[in-house]
Specification:
Structural class: alpha+beta
GO biological process, one term: DNA replication
Family: Belongs to the Gram-positive plasmids replication protein type 1 family.
Organism: Leptotrichia rugosa
Largest sheet: 5 strands, antiparallel
Number of helices: 10
Distance between the termini: 56 Å
Number of strands: 5
Number of domains: 2
Keywords: DNA replication
Shape: globular
Helix content: 40-55%
Radius of gyration: 20 Å
Oligomer: single chain
Strand content: 15-25%
Pfam family, one: Rep_1
Bound molecules: zinc ion
Length: 243
C-alpha cells in the first residue's frame, strides 16, 4: 500500500501546485502513521487527496441517496464525450453546455423536477473519455406527459442519441443512454451503488493516466457534482407546495 501511495504522490507532485501538494502530502503521511498505530490527525478533505477522495465521494452519494428517498420517479441519463488526448478543460466545458441543451429538450424539460449531474473522465493509456451521469427526478405522471407529447422512452432515447451526436459530431454510436430507475429503496441504492462503483477505482488503484484524468475533474472550476431543481432547493419547494 505505501509503495502505491508513494508512486501516486510522485504524480501528484507534478500535477498539483506546491501548497496543495504539501497539504495532501501531510494528510497521506498522517494516514500512514495512523496505519502504524499513531492517532489520526486532521484530514485534509481535498478531492485530489488519495486518502480523502473516496471518503468524500461516499459521503456525497449517501447525501444523494437520502434526497432520492422522497421521490418515486427517477430517470438515469448517461452522455459520453469524445475520446481525447488533450484539451480536457475545453471539452468538459463543451459537454456541460451540450448537457444543458439535452436537459432542455421538451420531453425532458416538461417532466424534470430536479437533477444531480456527475462529471467524470475515464483515462486509459493516455486517452481520456469525459462522460456525464445524470439522475433526473421526474414527475410521477411523466409517462402520461410523454403520451400527450405522443412519445415514449424509446423515441426519446433515439432523439437524445441523435441530438448528442449532432453536438459531438464525431460519428460514434451509442454515446447516450436513458433508463427508468425502479421505485424501491433497493433500486435507488443500486443506482447510487452503480455511481459509486464507477468511482470505486479509488486513487489507490488508479494508473497514472487515470490519476491525471481524475485530477482534471476535481481541479479548478470543474465541479464533479452539480445539483438542480428539487435536488438543490428542497426547502423552498416544500414551502411552495404547502401554499
Ligand atoms: Zn487528505
Amino acid at each position: 500500500m505505501e509503495k502505491i501511495l508513494i508512486k501516486e504522490l510522485e504524480i501528484l507532485e507534478k500535477e498539483l501546485n506546491k501548497k496543495d501538494f504539501e497539504i495532501v502530502l501531510e494528510c497521506v503521511n498522517n494516514y500512514i502513521l495512523n496505519r502504524n498505530g499513531v492517532e489520526m490527525r486532521r484530514k485534509c478533505d481535498k478531492r485530489c487527496c488519495p486518502v480523502c477522495s473516496t471518503r468524500l465521494k461516499i459521503q456525497e452519494y449517501k447525501k444523494i441517496l437520502k434526497k432520492l428517498e422522497e421521490y418515486n420517479s427517477i430517470l438515469f441519463l448517461t452522455l459520453n464525450g469524445k475520446n481525447l488526448t488533450e484539451n480536457y478543460e475545453k471539452e468538459l466545458k463543451k459537454i456541460k453546455s451540450q448537457f444543458n441543451k439535452i436537459k432542455k429538450l421538451k420531453e425532458l424539460d416538461k417532466i424534470t423536477l430536479g437533477y444531480v449531474r456527475v462529471v467524470e473522465i475515464k483515462g486509459d493509456n493516455g486517452i481520456f473519455k469525459p462522460h456525464i451521469h445524470t439522475i433526473l427526478v421526474v414527475k410521477d405522471g411523466y409517462k402520461m406527459i410523454w403520451s400527450r407529447q405522443k412519445t415514449g422512452i424509446k423515441e426519446i432515447r433515439k432523439k437524445i442519441e441523435k441530438k448528442w451526436g449532432e453536438y459531438n459530431g464525431n460519428g460514434e454510436k451509442n454515446l447516450t443512454d436513458l433508463r427508468a430507475v425502479g421505485k424501491t429503496k433497493k433500486d435507488k441504492e443500486n443506482l447510487v451503488r452503480y455511481l459509486t462503483g464507477n468511482l470505486e477505482k479509488q486513487m489507490f488503484n488508479m494508473n497514472e493516466s487515470e490519476i491525471r484524468a481524475y485530477l482534471k475533474t476535481v481541479k479548478g472550476t470543474n465541479r464533479v457534482y452539480s445539483y438542480g431543481g428539487v435536488m438543490r432547493n428542497k426547502k423552498r419547494l416544500k414551502k411552495v407546495q404547502k401554499l
